[in-house]
Design brief:
mainly alpha, 5 helices
Amino acid sequence: MTGSPDEDNWLEPAPAQRPGQITAAAVLLVVSAFLGTTIAVNDPELTQFVYLLLFVTIGAAIRVRKGGRTACITASVTAALFFLYLGPHAIRGLSDPGGVYQPEYAVRAIVAIAVSATGVSLLYSPPSRAYVRARGHHTAR
């Protein structure tokens, strides 16, 4: 019988179930990071930095699924850094198609930016925020 007074933790609330927005946000952030690294392969100056961002994004996505507030902030910061990296590829690839920045890089950059923005918006949707808040209070006790 659940919730009976005979159990030790009958006053504790049941842990919050993970909403689908959290999982979708984690997947979208990792997908956008992979798209960013496909561009970074041909950019030797920033390849190591982008790979580092990829691994940090993967780690943050795993922690986000567990309901970590710090992981949400880390995922948002890495998404912003990817935006700063991918922005010039999107702008210059469309404005100067024959240069270093190719149009296919621009398309990939725009898709990665859109996917990343969707992931961050899902990360801060009301069900996701409630889940992170509940997990934060649950682990603090």
